[in-house]
Amino acid sequence: MHALIVVSHPDPNSLTHSAAKQIGAGMTGDGRADTFEIADLSAEGFDPRFTESDLAAFRHDAELASDIRAEQARIDRADALVLVYPVYWWSMPGLMKGWIDRVFTNGWAYDDRAGGKVVKKLQHLPIHLVAIGGADLRTYARHGYFGAMRTQIDHGIFGYCGAPVRTTELLLDQPDGPEAMLATARKIGEALPGKSEHSRAAA
User: Could you tell me the pTM of the whole model?
Assistant: First the structure.
């Protein structure tokens, strides 16, 4: 199994990057043959702006930009897609959202057809979502933020493309440090080849 782990955080020493590395370590530990690639959107300088050229490609009036074709090829090589990101304003960062806006194109991720029919084209691609939150679990529960994030991201984005969301994990900061959070990230990596579905918030 090969996973593409996409990370959106400008600081390579952040908890977000550490969690991504632990997911990869979990995949490859104990002599396993699984492989992974980390796509660091910030370090790679991905342009998240959805421009006129992207709109033209959406309308099938122009070819996809070369950077978008490269990202789609990278996903096509993967057996699973893992997104690791900090929670910004109760959602993913703009850089990662822009990556989805530009890469998950009409004709590749889905087909918009006449009469409102949508063909979901990513049903073969398991999705694993790992969000790093700064607030405590009580805050997320009291305001319904985690449920709102699942509606927006799990259903609104990946449900539209037919990609099955296998993991939805909210890793929250803890008083005794990040060790428990990173241990959970490693366990996610260890479980990636399996088909069990996770949907919980780590305490």
Answer: 0.91
Residue 88: what residue type? Y
Quick check: helix, strand or coil at residue 70?
A: helix
Across the chain, which has 203 residues, the per-10-residue mean pLDDT values are: 97 97 93 91 98 94 96 97 96 97 97 89 97 89 90 96 96 82 94 54 39
For tokens 């490693």, what's the residue?
A: 186
Closest CA to 63 of 98, 107, 31, 115: 107
Strand 127-133 vs strand 110-112: parallel, antiparallel, or unpaired? unpaired
Long-range contacts of 151-155 (CB under 8 A, 24+ apart): 152/91, 153/91, 153/92, 153/129, 154/127, 154/129
C-beta of residue 131 within 8 angstroms of C-beta of residue 171: yes
Structure tokens at 111: 């087909």
Residue-range domains of the chain with CATH: 2-202 (3.40.50.360)
Mapped onto helix, strand or coil, the DSSP state of residue 33 is: coil
Query: If residue 178 lies in a helix (H) or strand (E), which one and from where to where?
Result: none
Q: Which residues contact 95 (CB under 8 A, 6 or more apart)?
A: 8, 41, 42, 46, 48
Report the relative pairing of strands 165-172 and 2-7 from DSSP bridges.
unpaired
pLDDT of residue 201: 43
Q: How far apart are CA 181 and CA 203, in angstroms?
A: 9
